[in-house]
Specification:
With 583 residues, the protein is α/β, with parallel strands linked by helices. The protein is 33% helix and 23% strand. The N and C termini lie far apart (53 Å).
Length: 583
């Protein structure tokens, strides 16, 4: 079929500034006339011509509500902009890490390679007609567009006057694998629908020893549970865990992707992953059923993960540190060593201690995966992580939830290679974590999220905290007046990062209060929601004394929690007597 290109007049729409995770708004906002069209065209206009004309682009996402409509709109606009072909995961499904893998690894039948892609996701936020939608663009390295591009996109949204679109292009069937070809003013245009899992599974098999993990999962001593929270991870879970690794079908929870995530909030934490938490013995009531040895959950687009042992929660900060400490021995991909490790600033310093002990390069970066991507592209970082349940490595340029689960299964398989038969006791998730603490010390850690706070009040709170930093003696007087049993504050600042690769400087990345004993308080405003402001408060107590690493987390952190809430005047500014979520 031959299609024509129309040029549609439009005008700028306010509020289209993409954040570190792209553009996220309510579905009703995206459904406004020209809203999605303007953003997509502004993105095309921000790219160099060779990244558009004659190029191959990936367009897929987590399958949330409005994805089907959005994919068809982007296909029509790609055709009109001279794109040569669009690759779409079957049923629009590709996890965020899989999009990165496809951009980096996949070759078309004619040898074509993708130069970038649109990912349709609002990550761990709810989906449905009244919930969230999102879009972001990833570059040819498979990572999120850098600020230089997102700034151009935003500037373009403020001046856009028209966009080209192939309105007469018929709806492409994205439920069937195959190629649909069209002819346009600039020549041939193809839409190829492909299997969502093939390229990603192939990559995972090149990183991990699947046979070793299969032996672990087939042992009668070991039990396993994986919760996709009705997100896109379900498109990979059966293939990887059941078909490739031999896990029981019954070990999969909520692994059918749904556009509204089954009405749930697809955020893998102790608050929202209720079903998994209960099954792992961490619920408020005892089910009377023996929990599995290992459990894990994913968020909507499968880039985040939560790791659980039997009646035991592994903090994301501990998780990345333990993966780094065990990677060389347990994961074939890292057998020749780690190039370096990195964490986001709010993440606990557990990784720092491992890096120092193993003499590894270490980097502390602002929140946002693109900062890790720069280090990885420069060959400076192998393993990285964020406290917000994101963990990954240099195999792609996004965080990767299933990769983290396979990393943990690899460590368990490595530790138990002599224990799977006979009477030998299994080394558990809890054993591994407690051994890590005894070696490196324990970083007691929690995060308080105050969601949908009035943006003006949130800003006032942050300004108050910055103002306090002008006098550390005054801060310590306040601190000691609240609790006399804590160390003194040694320094306080607003975190600023100079990228060692490109020299760029990122300012105002979070407010820090650093204590003499290695403890920390961190305050950040987060832009991952679609309404209001979210204040995130991070509280960390470092303990090297082996006799004190077994305390309950809330008990160890209680003095610092008290200080953080009173120092910040949290209730006074927000009107909230408690956080929305505690992790």
């Amino acid at each position: 079929m031959v299609f024509k290109v129309s040029h549609v007049s439009t005008s700028p729409i306010d509020g289209q500034k993409p954040g570190t995770s792209g553009l996220r708004k309510k579905v009703k906002v995206f459904k406004q006339p020209n809203y999605l069209h303007n953003f997509v065209q502004s993105t095309f206009n921000a790219l160099t011509p060779e990244k558009v004309k004659g190029a191959t682009l990936v367009v897929s996402g987590d399958g949330r509500y409005y994805s089907n409509d959005a994919v068809q709109i982007i296909i029509k606009m790609a055709a009109a902009n001279g794109v040569r072909r669009v690759w779409v995961g079957k049923n629009t499904l590709l996890s965020t890490p899989a999009v990165s893998a496809v951009i980096r690894e996949r070759s078309g039948a004619d040898g074509s390679k993708a130069t970038g892609g649109f990912i349709l996701t609002a990550s761990h936020n709810p989906g449905g007609p009244t919930e969230d939608f999102g879009i972001k663009y990833n570059m040819e390295n498979g990572g999120p567009a850098p600020e230089s591009i997102t700034d151009k996109i935003y500037e373009n949204t403020k001046t856009i006057k028209e966009y080209p679109i192939a309105e007469d292009l018929p709806i492409v069937d994205i439920s069937a694998i195959g190629v649909t070809s069209f002819e346009g003013p600039e020549g041939k245009f193809d839409v190829e629908v492909f299997d969502s899992a093939d390229d990603y599974v192939k990559l995972m098999k090149s990183i991990f020893d699947f046979e070793s993990i299969r032996k672990l999962l087939s042992s009668p001593k070991f039990s396993f549970c994986y919760d996709a929270m009705h997100g896109v991870a379900g498109a990979y879970a059966h293939r990887i865990f059941v078909e490739e690794l031999g896990a029981q079908e019954s070990s999969l929870l909520n692994c059918v992707p749904k556009e509204d995530f089954g009405g749930g909030h697809p955020d893998p934490n102790l608050t929202y992953a209720k079903e998994l938490v209960a099954r792992m013995g961490l619920g408020k009531s005892d089910t009377g059923v023996e929990p599995p040895e290992f459990g894990a959950a994913a968020d909507g687009d499968a880039d985040r993960n939560m790791i659980l042992g039997k009646r035991f929660f592994v903090t994301p900060s501990d998780s990345v540190a333990i993966i780094a400490a065990n990677a060389i021995g347990a994961i074939p991909y890292f057998s020749s060593g780690l190039k370096g490790v990195a964490r986001s600033m709010p993440t606990s310093a557990a990784l720092d201690v491992v890096a120092k002990s193993l003499n590894l390069k270490f980097f502390e970066v602002p929140t946002g995966w693109k900062f890790f991507g720069n280090l990885m592209d420069a060959g400076m970082c192998s393993v990285c992580g964020e406290e917000s349940f994101g963990t990954g490595s240099d195999h792609i340029r996004e965080k990767d939830g299933i990769w983290a689960v396979l990393a943990w299964l690899s460590i368990l398989a490595h530790k138990n290679k002599e224990n799977l038969e006979g009477d030998a006791k299994l080394v558990t998730v809890e054993d591994i974590v407690r051994q890590h603490w005894s070696t490196y010390g324990r970083h007691y850690y929690t995060r308080y999220d105050y969601e949908n706070v009035d943006a003006g009040k949130a800003k006032e709170l942050m300004e108050h905290l910055v103002k306090l930093q002008s006098s550390i003696p005054e801060v310590n007087k306040i601190v000691k007046g609240i609790r006399s049993d804590v160390a003194n504050v040694s320094s306080a600042d607003e975190f600023e990062y100079k990228d060692p690769v490109d020299g760029s400087i990122s300012k105002h990345q979070g407010i820090r209060y650093l204590f003499e004993d290695g403890s920390r308080l961190v305050f950040r405003l987060s832009g991952t929601g679609s309404e209001g402001a979210t204040i995130r408060l991070y509280i960390e107590q470092y303990e090297k004394d082996a006799s004190k690493i077994g305390r309950e987390s809330h008990e160890a952190l209680s003095p610092l929690v008290d200080i953080a809430l009173k120092l910040s005047k949290m209730e006074e500014f927000t009107g909230r007597s408690a956080p929305t979520v505690i992790t």
